[in-house]
Specification:
Strand content: under 5%
Helix content: over 70%
Largest sheet: none
Shape: rod-shaped
């Protein structure tokens, strides 16, 4: 494989790595949005639970029936279950967010590695070209010196 073919293959690899990184970034943004929405909803449920308890504490201070107390406790239990469930959803979403962040980090490192490899290949090509140019210059100078030296030898002979 020639140097230019090698560089072309690396450029294609870079393009693919960048596309994968961009996709990982989209996944991260979606995971971040889902995690935030789950957190907000969990917080809203917890806030509502506190308001509910305060409201009913005031209601119980006045007077209540056993039936109303039973409804309060049943609803409170269901609300606690919803809070626990939403907390689990938020925790799960945070886990996905962490995975998405790690995937993006890996993809960014791959892009950086491929870019570094491309830069090295370009530097190698440049050094090779400079060596060829130096060799050509040296050969041309040697020929010129030989041409200048050869007529002088003929004249003296």
């Amino acid at each position: 494989m020639s140097a230019s073919q090698n560089l072309s293959a690396l450029l294609i690899l870079l393009e693919r790595a960048e596309a994968e990184r961009d996709q990982a970034l989209q996944v991260l943004q979606q995971a971040r949005a889902r995690a935030e929405a789950a957190r907000v909803q969990a917080n809203q449920l917890s806030d509502y639970r506190q308001e509910y308890q305060q409201r009913w504490t005031q209601q119980f201070a006045q007077r209540t029936t056993v039936d109303i107390l039973g409804c309060y406790q049943t609803f409170g239990t269901r609300l606690d279950q919803a809070i626990t469930s939403q907390g689990n959803v938020a925790s799960h979403a945070e886990g996905h967010l962490s995975q998405a962040q790690e995937l993006l980090r890996e993809r960014e490192m791959r892009v950086a590695s491929v870019r570094k490899l491309i830069e090295r290949r370009r530097q190698e090509q440049l050094r090779g070209q400079l060596r060829q140019e130096q060799k050509a210059t040296d050969e041309q100078a040697a020929r010129a010196a030989l041409a200048a030296y050869t007529p002088a030898m003929r004249l003296s002979a």
